[in-house]
Write a structure and sequence with these properties.
Elements lengths: L3 E2 L1 E4 L15 H14 L3 E5 L5 H13 L4 E7 L2 H11 L4 E9 L2 H8 L3 H18 L3 E6 L6 H14 L3 E6 L6 H14 L7 E6 L6 H10 L4 E4 L13 H10 L1 H4 L1 E2 L7 H12 L20 H9 L19 E3 L5 H10 L6 H17 L3 E2 H14 L4 E9 L7 E8 L6 E8 L4 H13 L4 E9 L8 E9 L2 E9 L2 H14 L17
Parallel strand pairs: 1-10, 2-3, 2-9, 3-4, 4-5, 5-6, 6-7, 7-8, 8-9
Antiparallel strand pairs: 11-12, 13-14, 14-15, 16-17, 17-18
Helix pairs in contact: 1-2, 1-11, 2-3, 3-5, 5-6, 6-7, 7-8, 8-9, 14-15, 16-17
This protein binds 3-methyl-2-oxobutanoic acid and zinc ion.
């Protein structure tokens, strides 16, 4: 039996961005879109153009800069949304408009206040308008998994007749089980007369932890496209995880007789990129891309692995993009080795960037014996972050003791005008060392902000591991996120706080006020 090729529709930049606190700026979105194209996904849903001017711009930028892949924009079934989506998408090499309208009884009655006939009319009008702009149109009956089967068949048939080339079946609230989702798709395959004129897609949310299982059940029953996100990020508990569904199909081709065009070796670098940009950490035991996904702890497993890896390993770490050994470089490694490793991790560095990263690498190697891939990724990300920053960290000197107010002397560099200037201030305030350093930064930069979120996690393993701090600050009702990495947690906190403050002048805030598609 030959394999079917399942299309991968990535919605990291749209549904993924609806994860609380996961907003990305324009440059970051284009960087992720390029990484998704390199990963080999078929369709990138770049955003919801009418949601905000920022969303419009990012869909337009992705559409004009990323080639070789279909670029999609979301729209509700109304003229203004569809026209705006087309405006953003029209320069794409392969544009797709994705229109959606809720169909379940609960949405019809309480949200839309429309009866079944009105829903069908509105869906048909939306698809027709989109089809007037481009020949690749996707229609989603929102909350399809809770829609009466007969009515779902009616809407899907009408949408295809109106010009939909893909019909996407969302489990919007993550309510379905695999058997249920399988039967929803089977019902459409068996009962919609024109179903062969469109690709059936599936879009599962993970509220019950079943998004991947439900998507696979849909594939088994005839779906030819899966909608998913990197690391499974998305609304509430997230979406179907791209890396999991792709590797399930690849590893179990004997069962599914299906595969995708994804270059699986790019999964880990893409996962790291999305995690670094969004600040949403990947849990250690996350299937496929988690740090422990291929770590064998039990002695009996290790023994089996040494004799024959296939005894306990159903996939090879290198197949998903982990390097064979994670322990890579040390004090004596040279710039070329570092550059080579950074390239393998998915970074494209200029000679100047490599030189800066190499100097920081040497400083790190003095403090830390073993340098892991994750350390290198953190150093490179830190370098990319600070390059455009006006304020940078130079040094601090702190004295603190239980019960006493900490005293900190902080020096920052300011890149303003021709000559960078160093500014030093001493502050005796705060509840502890981190608070004191934040107050010193505010005193030097002149920005008074509120810290709304602060988290720290270790980048690699061991007592000397680097700590990565993520902060979210609020300034004049807008939120800005920053990250910083160091073996010294106070310095990492200072770097993160400064990174967030540096975003204030350019207005690079976390978008909070944009329209969400479910509203
Ligand atoms: O979950 C959902 O129903 C959606 C639609 C907009 C496709 O994201
Ligand atoms: Zn969704």
């Amino acid at each position: 039996m030959s394999n079917r090729t399942i299309r991968i529709f990535d919605t990291t930049l749209r549904d993924g961005e609806q994860s609380p606190g996961a907003s990305m700026n324009l440059t970051e979105k284009v960087e992720i879109a390029r990484a998704l194209a390199d990963l080999g996904v078929d369709i990138i849903e770049a955003g919801f153009p009418i949601a905000s001017p920022g969303d419009f711009e990012s869909v337009r930028d992705v559409a004009s800069n990323v080639r070789g892949v279909t670029i999609c924009g979301l729209a509700r079934c109304n003229d203004a949304d569809i026209d705006r989506a087309w405006e953003a998408l029209k320069c794409a090499e392969h544009p797709r408009i994705h229109v959606f309208l809720a169909t379940s009884a609960i949405h019809r009655e309480f949200k839309l206040k429309m009866d079944k006939d009105e829903i069908v009319q509105r869906a048909v009008a939306g698809v027709r308008r989109a089809a007037g702009y481009c020949d690749d149109v996707e229609f989603s009956p929102e909350d399809a998994a809770r829609t009466e089967p007969d009515f779902l068949c009616r809407v899907v048939e009408a949408a295809i007749a109106a010009g939909a080339t893909t019909v996407n079946i969302p489990d919007t609230v993550g309510y379905a089980t695999p058997t249920h989702m399988g039967s929803v798709i089977r019902n459409l395959v068996q009962r919609v007369p024109n179903i062969d004129k469109a690709i059936i897609s599936v879009h599962c949310h993970n509220d019950l932890g079943l998004a991947v299982a439900n998507s696979l059940a849909a594939v088994e029953n005839g779906a030819g496209q899966v909608e998913c996100t990197i690391n499974g990020i998305g609304e509430r508990a997230g979406n179907c995880s791209l890396e999991e569904v792709v590797m399930a199909l690849r590893t179990r081709q004997d069962y599914y007789h299906a595969d995708t065009k994804v270059v699986s070796q790019r999964l880990v670098p893409t996962s790291r990129l999305v995690s670094n940009i969004t600040g949403l950490a990947v849990q250690r035991n996350k299937a496929i891309v988690g740090r422990n996904a291929f770590a064998h702890e039990a002695g009996i497993h290790q023994d089996g692995m040494l004799k024959e890896p296939r005894t306990y390993e159903i996939m090879r770490p290198e197949d998903v993009g982990f390097q064979h050994t994670d322990l890579v470089l040390g004090k004596h490694s040279g710039r070329a080795a570092l550059g080579d490793r950074a390239r393998k991790l998915g970074y494209r560095l200029t000679a100047e960037q490599l030189q800066e990263v190499f100097e920081n690498f040497k400083r790190l190697a003095d403090k830390k014996k073993e340098i892991y891939d994750s350390d290198i990724a953190a150093l490179v990300d830190q370098q990319i972050r600070v390059e455009t920053d006006a304020w940078s960290f130079v040094s601090y000197d702190m004295s603190t003791r239980t019960g006493d107010t900490p005293r900190v002397k902080l020096t920052l560099r300011h890149e303003a005008g021709e000559k960078p200037q160093e500014v030093t201030k001493e502050v005796a305030a705060g509840d502890g060392p981190v608070d004191a350093i934040f107050l010193a930064i505010e005193a030097i930069t002149g920005y008074e902000v509120h810290c709304r979120d602060f988290s720290v996690h270790s980048v690699s393993v061991g007592k000397d591991a680097q700590g990565e701090v993520t902060v979210e600050i609020e300034y004049r009702n807008r939120r800005f996120r920053g990250r910083g990495v160091s073996t010294d947690s106070v310095e990492a906190s200072a770097l993160a706080f400064l990174n967030a403050i540096n975003r204030i002048p350019s207005g690079d805030a976390i978008a909070q006020d944009k329209l969400q598609p479910y509203s």
